[in-house]
Amino acid sequence: MTDQRNPSLCDIFFGISAMERAGTGLIDVGELMLKGGGGSAFYHNPAEARFKAIVSQPMASAGSRSVARSDVPTGLYILNVLPFSAVPENVSIVKLTAPLRDRPRTIDLGECGTFVDRGTELWSFVPLPILTTLLEPIVDTKASTAPTRKEIDASPDSKRVLSWLLRKHFEYELLTFEEQDGLILEYGRKHRAYFAGKNKAERTIVWNSAQRRGNRREVVKRRGDPPRAWFENEGFGYEIVDMGGMWCVRIKPFYMFTGPDAFTPLPAFTRAAKATRRIKFDRNKSVEADLTFWASFLGRGAETMNVGDLHVDDLLIDMTFLTVEVPEIGLSNDFEHKNRMSA
């Protein structure tokens, strides 16, 4: 047992943080273990004059006890891509003996689902036996195949056609939003969609999020006064991309500027000028909120979006944007970075 020989002197040293009171070392141990990801526990048994301390090490990386735990600061980045969570393993490539435009009238393309017409070839996720039966009068059965996606990914030209097919499936689902919500595809090969006004005026839609149902959002806003009124319409561009072997839909929100009918786009040079003035209102939080809206709206509040169409049940898009954790080399955890923005 030890004791203070000079209590007054001890108080002075304690006041200038040159010494600690008895027992505070255990508190320090507990704090340090928690900070390092581990834990601690202390037991005192006066009857047996016994004291027990247990400290547990943090969970090592990848579940291994021989791999060190990384304390490098990391940032979580949200990518503007929605990954396909399920894609059919095979793609049907039907060889045609005649172009589809010269097909017999008995062939009903409405039963063939979504496909890509390449003149003498037809690419689809619909099982090959179904397509060859529906298109039997103009099918070269021996030349028709159903390669795996792994085989298709090995060829740049085949990957291009596969991305085209995936995009057509996505656009097929987008068309279902036109009647009720006014979401339309831009004319031509723009690969963009935007909201049209309702009865040549503003449009407000109701959408559901994971946190709340019945959200209201004004997606078409009037700008200016008649007769020179114009509208600001929310929309997004889309493209199919391959992210390290994972097919995804890249979403790029934008504003379409339309004329008095809230539908027809203004001339390109006018839209460019208005977009330049509009961009000053966009901030990181606004962009993140827009991505959250589009994911919830397009998924209709569900976790996945089914874009399979006829005869295809395993083509799903995950309605959560892809996130990656990136080490922020050069940053330190020892002090607070006041000017550092969270990833």
Structure description:
The protein is of the alpha+beta class and about 350 residues long. The protein has 2 domains: about 5-65, no CATH class; about 70-85 and about 170-343, no CATH class. Helix content is about 25%, strand content about 30%. It is built from 8 helices and 16 strands. Strands 4, 8, 9, 10, 11, 12, 13, 14 and 15 form a 9-stranded antiparallel β-sheet that branches. It has a 3-stranded antiparallel β-sheet with strand order 5-7-6, with helices on both faces. It has a two-stranded antiparallel sheet with strand order 1-2. A hairpin with a 2-residue loop joins strand 12 (about 230-245) and strand 13. The longest helix is centred in the middle third of the chain and has 19 residues, at about 155-175. The radius of gyration is 31 Å and the shape is elongated.
- Would you tell me the structural class of the helices and strands? alpha+beta
Distance between the termini: 53 Å
Unreliable segments of 5+ consecutive residues: none
Number of helices: 8
- When the domains are counted, the total is 2
Largest sheet: 9 strands, antiparallel
One letter per element, helices H and strands E, the order comes to: HHEEEEEEEHHHHEEEEEEHHEEE
**Which percent band covers the strand fraction?**
25-35%
Radius of gyration: 31 Å
Please state the overall shape, judged from the principal axes of the Cα atoms: elongated
- Please give the share of residues in helix: 10-25%
Mean pLDDT: 86
Strand tally: 16
